[in-house]
C-alpha cells in the first residue's frame, strides 16, 4: 500500500491512527486505517476520510487488497470527536448497536475549496448506494439557531367522552415531568394507549389549551405563535401529495416556510441541500406515491416528511413514531439522522414504539409512560440501573426496550419480582391480584408509579426548579407573539396555485374521466343525431337535450368538488398548524387552480354534442352556450365545495348532495311546469333551472316564443343568479373552513 505524500504534516490525528492500528492486529482494520489520503493528495478532507472506510483503500494504487473495507457488525462503535482529538484523548463510545470504527480526522486545515464538498461519515456502510449521500451535513444546519430549552412539570391532560346521557372525563396524562436541552434526543416510550402522542402534541403546541394542566416552558417562557416557525413536527402518518415528486415537495415547502429575506433561488438551493442531506438524490424526480400510485419506498417517504420540517432549520423537532413500519436497518438510519440533527444544536423529541437495542442506545434521555403515568425519566443509559435498584431485572438477555415495555404493561414474565410485590402476593394470594404466582398488571403499575414518585420524582423536580442561565434576549424572542410568514399573500397564492395544478392534473386527465365524458357525449350525439330544428317536435327534442346538458354539468362538478376539502383535511391541518400559509391564500388558490382543468373537458363535450345533434349553427350561439355551461359548472362546484367543507365527511356530504341535486333537477322547469307557490322558491336556488332557461333563450329566442311550457324570452336575471351562486357558495365554504377545528388551534 502506498504511503501518503509528504504534504500532510504529522499531527495528533496521525498519532491517533497509528495507536489504533497497533491496538488492533486485524490486517483488514490496520490496512484501512493506515490510508491517509487517496491519490496522494496533500490534504485530507472528510470526504476522502469517508472513502477510506467505505471504498477500496488501495484504489488507484494497484493494490491487490483493493476490495478490503470495514463492515459494521452488531457489537460496538468507536468515534473520536473533535474535542477529544484536540485534547490528545481518545474516548471510545460503545454500544450494542454496531461494531466497526469510524474516525474523524482533525488537527489539520481543510482547504476552502474542499469545505463545500465535505461530509461526515455514514452509519450505513453496508449500503453503498447511500454512502455518498446518506448523512451529509448541510451548511444551513450548522448555522446558528435559536437554542430552546424545553421543560415541563406536572403536565396533565383530560378529555371528555360524550355519552348518550352523561359525559365522562378520562385522564390521558397524570403529572408528567421532564426536560430536554439543545443537542439531546428525548425518547417517549410506552405501550399503545399510554399517552405518548398526546404528550408530544402538548409539547409541540398542537393541542389547544383546555383540559390541560401543569406548565410547559420554552426558555422559561410559555408557548407563543412565534414558536410555530421554530418548531418542526413530523406526524406519525406520512401526509404528502402523492403526485408530486420528492424535489417538488421539498421545494414548495422551502418556498412557503423559509424566511422572506431569502431569494427564490436560495430557497430552492436549500431544498436541494436537504435532498442530499437525507440521501434522497436518487429518487428526487420520483413521485411520492400513495395507495394507488407507485412511488418512493417507506423509508424514503419518512425521510421526505423529516425533510419538510428540518428545511426551516428548526430549534425544536418533534417526531411521532418515525420508525413505525420500517425495517430495523432503515429505522437505525432514521434515528442516526435524528442524532446528527441534535448534534447541530437542536432539541429533538420523538415517540418510539419498541425500538431495537441499537436504536435504544442512541437516545440521550428517556421518558417511560404507562397508562398516562410517569414510570421513568432520566438518561436512557441509566434506565436499566434504576429498575434494577427497585428490584426489576431481566432474568434472561433481552432488548432493554422490550424489558421496559413489558414493565410498562405490567408483565413480569422473565423479570425478577421485587420483594415488596412478592410479600404482597404471598399475603393476599387472591386471583384478583395474581396471575400464575405473579402480581397482576394493575399491582405492578401501581408499584412502578409509587417507586418513581418516592425515589426520583422530587429530585428531578428540584433540578427543573433551578433557573436556566439564559440572557433576556433569548427569552424575549420566545415571548414574541407575532406570526412570521415565509412569503407574502400573493406569493403564497401563486405557489399554492402552481402546486395545485401539478398535483391534480393527473386526476383530471386520467383516461377514466376522459372516457366518461367522451362516451356520454357520443351517446348523446347518436341519440339526437342531426335533430330537425325546423319542426315543433324536433325543437322539443332539442329542448330535452339542453335540459340534460344543464343537469349533467350541474351534477358532475358537485360530486367532484365534494371530495376537495375532506380529502385534503389532513394536509390542511398539518400545514396550517405549521403556519405555512394563510387560509385565504390556500382557499383561493385551491378553488381557482381547479378552473383551468375543469373547463377543458366541457369544451370537448360540447364540441362533440353540439355538432352531432345539429344544434343552431352560429358562432355566437355556440360560444354563448359554452359560456352558460361554464357558469353552471362553476356554480355547481361552489355548492360541492360548501357541502364538503361544512360536513367534512364524505358519506354525509354525498348523501346531502344527492338530495340537493335531485331537488334542483326536479325544480328545473322541465318535469313540472306549475309548481305550488309555497315551494316555488326552490327553483330560483336551482342552477339547473337558470342554466336551462338561458340555453333555451340562446337557442330558440328568434325561432319560437315558448317550448315545452317554458318561455324562450327570459330575462338575464338568470345570469345574475348564477354569478351570485358562484361567490355565495364559495364564501360559505370559506367560512366553514374557518370554523373547522384544526389540531393545535392553528
Automatic annotation (TrEMBL):
It is a multi-pass membrane protein. CDD domains: ABCG_EPDR (cd03213). GO terms for molecular function: ABC-type transporter activity; ATP binding; ATP hydrolysis activity. Keywords: ATP-binding, Membrane, Nucleotide-binding, Transmembrane, Transmembrane helix, Transport. PANTHER family: ABC TRANSPORTER G FAMILY MEMBER 22, ABC TRANSPORTER G FAMILY MEMBER 28. The chain crosses the membrane at residues 511-531, 543-565, 623-647, 659-682, 716-737. It is found in: Membrane. Belongs to the ABC transporter superfamily. ABCG family. Eye pigment precursor importer (TC 3.A.1.204) subfamily. Residues 23-71 are annotated as: Disordered. One of its GO terms (cellular component) is membrane. Residues 150-396 form the ABC transporter domain. This is ABC transporter domain-containing protein.
Amino acid at each position: 500500500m502506498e504511503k501518503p505524500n509528504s504534504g500532510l504534516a504529522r499531527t495528533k490525528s496521525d498519532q491517533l491512527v497509528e495507536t489504533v492500528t497497533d491496538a488492533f492486529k486485524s490486517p483488514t482494520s490496520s490496512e484501512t486505517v493506515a490510508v491517509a489520503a487517496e491519490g496522494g493528495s496533500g490534504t485530507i478532507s472528510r470526504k476522502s476520510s469517508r472513502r477510506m472506510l467505505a471504498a477500496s483503500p488501495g484504489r488507484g494504487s494497484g493494490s491487490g487488497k483493493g476490495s478490503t473495507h470495514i463492515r459494521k457488525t452488531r457489537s460496538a462503535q468507536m468515534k473520536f470527536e473533535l474535542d477529544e482529538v484536540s485534547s490528545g484523548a481518545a474516548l471510545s463510545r460503545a454500544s450494542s448497536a454496531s461494531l466497526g470504527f469510524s474516525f474523524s480526522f482533525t488537527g489539520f486545515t481543510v482547504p476552502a475549496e474542499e469545505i463545500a464538498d465535505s461530509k461526515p461519515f455514514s452509519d450505513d456502510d453496508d449500503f453503498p448506494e447511500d454512502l455518498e449521500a446518506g448523512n451529509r451535513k448541510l451548511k444551513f444546519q450548522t448555522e446558528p439557531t435559536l437554542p430552546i430549552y424545553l421543560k415541563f412539570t406536572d403536565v396533565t391532560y383530560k378529555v371528555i367522552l360524550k355519552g348518550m346521557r352523561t359525559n365522562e372525563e378520562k385522564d390521558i396524562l397524570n403529572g408528567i415531568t421532564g426536560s430536554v436541552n439543545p443537542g439531546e434526543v428525548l425518547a417517549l416510550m410506552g405501550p399503545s394507549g399510554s399517552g405518548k402522542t398526546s404528550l408530544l402534541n402538548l409539547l409541540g403546541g398542537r393541542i389547544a389549551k383546555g383540559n390541560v394542566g401543569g406548565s410547559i416552558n420554552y426558555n422559561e417562557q410559555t408557548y407563543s405563535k412565534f414558536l410555530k416557525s421554530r418548531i418542526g413536527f413530523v406526524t406519525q402518518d406520512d401526509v404528502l401529495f402523492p403526485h408530486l415528486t420528492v424535489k417538488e415537495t421539498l421545494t414548495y415547502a422551502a418556498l412557503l416556510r423559509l424566511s422572506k429575506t431569502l431569494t427564490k433561488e436560495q430557497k430552492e438551493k436549500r431544498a436541494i441541500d436537504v435532498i442530499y442531506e437525507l440521501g434522497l438524490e436518487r429518487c428526487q424526480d420520483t413521485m411520492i406515491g400513495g395507495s394507488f400510485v407507485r412511488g418512493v419506498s417507506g423509508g424514503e417517504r419518512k425521510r421526505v416528511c423529516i425533510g419538510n420540517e428540518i428545511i426551516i432549520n428548526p430549534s425544536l423537532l418533534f417526531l411521532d413514531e418515525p420508525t413505525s413500519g420500517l425495517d430495523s436497518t432503515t429505522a437505525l438510519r432514521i434515528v442516526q439522522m435524528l442524532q446528527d440533527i441534535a448534534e447541530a444544536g437542536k432539541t429533538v423529541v420523538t415517540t418510539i414504539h419498541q425500538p431495537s437495542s441499537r436504536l435504544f442506545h442512541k437516545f440521550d434521555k428517556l421518558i417511560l409512560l404507562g397508562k398516562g403515568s410517569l414510570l421513568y425519566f432520566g438518561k436512557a443509559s441509566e434506565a436499566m440501573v434504576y429498575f434494577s435498584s427497585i428490584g426489576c431485572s431481566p432474568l434472561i438477555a433481552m432488548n432493554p426496550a422490550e424489558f421496559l415495555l413489558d414493565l410498562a404493561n405490567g408483565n413480569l414474565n422473565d423479570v425478577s419480582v421485587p420483594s415488596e410485590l412478592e410479600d404482597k402476593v404471598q399475603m393476599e394470594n387472591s386471583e384478583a391480584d395474581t396471575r400464575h404466582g405473579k402480581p397482576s398488571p394493575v399491582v405492578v403499575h401501581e408499584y412502578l408509579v409509587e417507586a418513581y414518585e418516592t425515589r426520583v420524582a422530587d429530585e428531578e423536580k428540584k433540578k427543573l426548579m433551578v433557573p436556566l442561565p439564559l440572557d433576556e434576549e433569548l427569552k424575549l424572542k420566545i415571548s414574541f407573539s407575532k406570526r412570521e410568514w415565509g412569503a407574502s399573500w400573493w406569493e403564497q397564492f401563486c405557489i399554492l396555485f402552481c402546486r395545485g395544478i401539478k398535483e391534480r392534473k393527473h386526476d383530471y386527465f386520467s383516461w377514466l374521466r376522459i372516457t366518461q365524458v367522451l362516451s356520454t357525449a357520443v351517446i348523446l350525439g347518436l341519440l339526437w343525431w342531426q335533430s330537425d330544428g325546423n319542426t315543433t317536435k324536433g325543437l322539443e327534442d332539442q329542448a330535452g337535450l339542453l335540459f340534460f346538458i344543464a343537469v349533467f354539468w350541474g351534477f358532475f362538478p358537485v360530486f367532484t368538488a365534494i371530495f376537495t376539502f375532506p380529502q385534503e383535511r389532513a394536509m390542511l391541518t398539518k400545514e396550517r398548524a405549521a403556519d405555512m400559509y394563510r387560509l385565504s391564500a390556500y382557499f383561493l388558490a385551491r378553488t381557482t387552480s381547479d378552473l383551468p382543468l375543469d373547463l377543458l373537458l366541457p369544451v370537448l363535450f360540447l364540441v362533440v354534442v353540439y355538432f352531432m345533434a345539429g344544434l343552431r349553427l352560429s358562432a355566437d350561439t355556440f360560444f354563448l352556450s359554452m359560456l352558460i355551461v361554464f357558469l353552471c359548472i362553476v356554480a355547481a362546484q361552489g355548492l360541492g365545495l360548501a357541502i364538503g367543507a361544512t360536513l367534512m365527511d364524505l358519506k354525509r356530504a354525498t348523501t346531502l348532495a344527492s338530495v340537493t341535486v335531485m331537488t334542483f333537477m326536479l325544480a328545473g322547469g322541465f318535469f313540472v311546469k306549475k309548481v305550488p307557490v309555497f315551494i316555488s322558491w326552490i327553483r330560483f336556488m336551482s342552477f339547473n333551472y337558470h342554466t336551462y332557461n338561458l340555453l333555451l333563450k340562446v337557442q330558440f329566442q328568434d325561432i319560437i316564443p315558448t317550448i315545452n311550457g317554458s318561455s324562450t324570452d327570459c330575462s338575464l336575471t338568470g345570469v345574475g343568479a348564477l354569478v351570485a351562486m358562484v361567490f355565495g357558495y364559495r364564501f360559505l365554504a370559506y367560512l366553514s373552513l374557518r370554523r373547522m377545528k384544526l389540531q393545535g388551534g392553528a
